[in-house]
């Protein structure tokens, strides 16, 4: 699937799911701009992907600076055709113990940033008459998971925004979709499950495919949803979860 002469922005694209998405995009011929906060991780990604990618060290929680960032990226790289809102933070804490400050921090990064960046990039896409925005949601937006109240609130909002922005922006040629990943393999997630046999048994017993997903499997879905192959798909929240969300 070649998406030549297109430019994508992937937030948090230097690690984890974001890096897998960046890899899939660059291999498909999409020039990909990674936005991240850690210079060392950005340098490593640039070294791996070479001239197929660029990067910008930037703290997206500085909402007021996002319009200037987007202007600068367009000036430097040309048309911004694809945006993947992947960057996020977690907070594992019981709701009764979560402070207002902790809650707002998660909301700021996982929800407010998604809106502000989407709005500013969409302003550019309107001028091109086309564009694709992909939000990374979570199974936490689909059913109750303990100790992640801020994350759940933010991801539920992201899915609502996906639908609301779809109906506003579809007439302008912009598609907006989301992916809700299930239990995806990483060293951190594997270690967490191995250290909690009861949780591990629960995860696999309700996942019909009986295994964790691979980052590349989420990346393949992301590539499809932003590509011309999905030109009549918008407003969708696609679970990539081995059936976990419908498992019994």
From TrEMBL:
<dbReference type="InterPro" id="IPR002347">
    <property type="entry name" value="SDR_fam"/>
</dbReference>
<protein>
    <submittedName>
        <fullName>NAD(P)-dependent dehydrogenase, short-chain alcohol dehydrogenase family</fullName>
    </submittedName>
</protein>
<keyword id="KW-0560">Oxidoreductase</keyword>
<dbReference type="InterPro" id="IPR036291">
    <property type="entry name" value="NAD(P)-bd_dom_sf"/>
</dbReference>
<dbReference type="Pfam" id="PF13561">
    <property type="entry name" value="adh_short_C2"/>
</dbReference>
<dbReference type="GO" id="GO:0016616">
    <property type="term" value="F:oxidoreductase activity, acting on the CH-OH group of donors, NAD or NADP as acceptor"/>
</dbReference>
<comment type="similarity">
    <text>Belongs to the short-chain dehydrogenases/reductases (SDR) family.</text>
</comment>
């Amino acid at each position: 699937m070649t998406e030549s002469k297109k430019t994508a922005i992937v937030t948090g694209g230097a690690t984890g799911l974001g890096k897998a998405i960046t890899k899939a995009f660059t291999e498909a011929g999409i020039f990909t701009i990674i936005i991240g906060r850690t210079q060392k991780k950005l340098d490593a990604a640039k070294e791996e992907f070479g001239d197929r990618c660029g990067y910008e060290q930037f703290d997206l929680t500085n909402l007021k600076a996002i319009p200037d960032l987007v202007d600068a990226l367009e000036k430097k790289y040309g048309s911004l055709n694809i945006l993947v809102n992947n960057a996020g933070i977690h907070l594992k804490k019981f709701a009764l113990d979560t402070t207002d400050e902790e809650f707002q921090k998660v909301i700021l990064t996982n929800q407010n940033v998604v809106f502000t960046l989407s709005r500013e990039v969409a302003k550019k896409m309107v001028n091109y008459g086309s564009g694709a925005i992909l939000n990374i949601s979570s199974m936490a937006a689909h059913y109750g998971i303990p100790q992640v109240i801020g994350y759940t609130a933010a991801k539920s909002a992201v899915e609502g925004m996906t639908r609301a922005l779809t109906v506003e922006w579809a007439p302008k040629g912009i598609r907006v979709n989301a992916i809700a990943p299930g239990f995806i393999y990483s060293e951190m997630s594997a270690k967490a499950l191995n250290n909690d046999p009861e949780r591990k048994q629960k995860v696999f017993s309700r996942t019909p495919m009986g295994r964790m997903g691979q980052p590349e499997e989420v990346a393949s879905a992301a590539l499809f949803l932003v590509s011309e192959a999905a030109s009549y798909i918008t407003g969708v929240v696609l679970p990539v979860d081995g059936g976990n969300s419908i498992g019994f």
